[in-house]
Amino acid sequence: MKALPLRRPSALRPSGLPRCLLQESSLGAIIPIHHSGASCVRPLSSTASRQDKSRRIAVPRRKTAATFDVPQFTLRDVPPEPVLEAMLAHPATPAYLSGMTSAQCHSLLLEYASRTLQLADPARDFRQVFQALLKRGRRAEEGPDQTRALHATLHCIAGMLVQGPPGPVYNLALHILHALVKLDYAPSVLSETRIALVSRKVDQPQFAPAVERFERLVKSMAAYRPSASKTAKKGKSGSEADTAVGNKADEEEASLRANTFTLKGLMIVASNQDRPKPSPEGYREALKYFEAAVGGSPTKSPASSLRFDWQIPCMVEMGHCYVALGATEKAHAAWKFAAEELDDKDATALYALHALQPDEPARERLLLKAAVNDSKLAVDEMNRVYHEKVANQMETGVEGTQGEGKKWDRLLKKVVRDEWEKLASPPPAANGSK
User: Fold this and answer.
1) I want to staple 417 with a disulfide (CB 3.0 to 4.6 A). Which of 88, 104, 327, 386 is the partner?
2) By three-state DSSP, how is residue 106 classified?
């Protein structure tokens, strides 16, 4: 559940926040959805994945309020039904909202905003809003499931609005997330903490409730050990439906743990790279959480069947940590997994650049695949490659003696070089090979 003016990281790039935090585009990348019924991972059969561009929602630059307890929105900021209809129809919208109409979504948001604005003390009395919404029974479930369903619905709607067009509705979405954070709804805790990390505001007071709850969640996840008796009971009694429900709950719990450990690792990497000299101990500590998220070392892939929302940034930054510690083989394995199994553009570029030799045919093919999917790392490398090809032709070729075929090939390479130069950022220094 998208670029921000932040520095780029890793031992292979200038220090700063992980690049994966700057260019995430799927809805699940920012908002972990544990009730969507579908993974945010792209199809494994996809190649250049131009079809995935329709799924991307860019994260515009946002201005975050100094506090989320005081409403920073009005009723006019609630999106109209046509806008919500377009958002709900977007392929990246969580499947959990598939049964909701734009009229229902608008009514829910309007009532949430209206009741919140009527509160004398929104920071203290915000639970009254949720109690009123529960009485209306927005979903079919009853009892505790109805509460969980309301929280999941509002969480998914907030995620949809956060990734939508810029505007005051962003404050409404953050207010919903913050209210769910104060209700200890774990997916919202992760989402708001990730927003704080991306915007480099982890230490600011408006994000303190989310960050504090996140740290408690990390500790509880690290101490959690599944009960053997609970696992045994699940197999002995109960219908197939009960078993399916239990399996789904286990999958959601495993996904939540993996996302939690991934985010903790990303926070450690960002903090380590903010130091004048990043320490190996910081990278080792981050690796503990990354490996816990995926179930072990990438060279063994013990949990390759597990899919979770932030698996791509987990594998990409795991690779950077391995490089910083000198374990290049493990770094290549992590990037290869993210490139082949998760079809990630930046992992594809990293694997091609650092694991394959320049003369290997697969290297340029993988770089081209990543470049057409907007990987700046791959675009810059393709720009360098074609400048080098044209420069070599200028040195070895003699005009008039090459034949028409080779002259055409030379002209074609110049055209392709010029196109890559337009896309590359920053452009290479002029070397006279025009």
Assistant:
1) 386
2) helix
60 Rama class: left (phi>0) / alpha (psi -120 to 50) / beta: beta
Specify if 161 maps to a domain. Answer: yes
How many residues are present in the chain? 434
- State in Å, rounded, how far the first CA of the chain is from the last one: 45
Q: Kindly state whether residue 36 falls inside one of the protein's structural domains.
A: yes
Whole-angstrom distance, CA of residue 26 vs CA of residue 2: 7
Amino acid found at 398: V
CA dist list (Å): 402 to 256, 392, 433: 62, 14, 18
Full domain range(s) for residue 183: 26-213
Tokens linked to 406: 């080779």
Q: Is the pLDDT of residue 51 over 80?
A: no
Band the pLDDT of 398: cuts 50, 70, 90.
very low
pLDDT tens profile 241-285: 555 555 667 788 888 999 999 999 999 999 999 888 999 999 999
d(CA 200, CA 249): 33
- Residue 394 is assigned to a structural domain of this protein: no
Long-range Cβ contact pairs of 363-367 (< 8 A, separation 24 or more): 366/339
**What's the rounded mean pLDDT across residues 92-98?**
84
The total of structural domains in the chain comes to 1
DSSP secondary structure string for all residues of 107-173? HHHHHHHHHHHH-SSHHHHTHHHHHHHHHT--SS--THHHHHHHHHHHHHHHHHHHTSSSSTHHHHH
- Compute the distance between CA of residue 184 and CA of residue 54 in angstroms, rounded to an integer: 33
From the number of C-beta atoms within 10 Å of its C-beta (0-12, 13-18, 19+), residue 200 rates as middle
In a domain, 347, yes or no: no
pTM greater than 0.70 (yes/no)? yes
State which amino acid sits at residue 185: Y
Residues 131-154: tens digit of each pLDDT: 888 887 544 444 568 888 899 999
Rounded to 10°, the helix 240-273/280-294 angle is 170
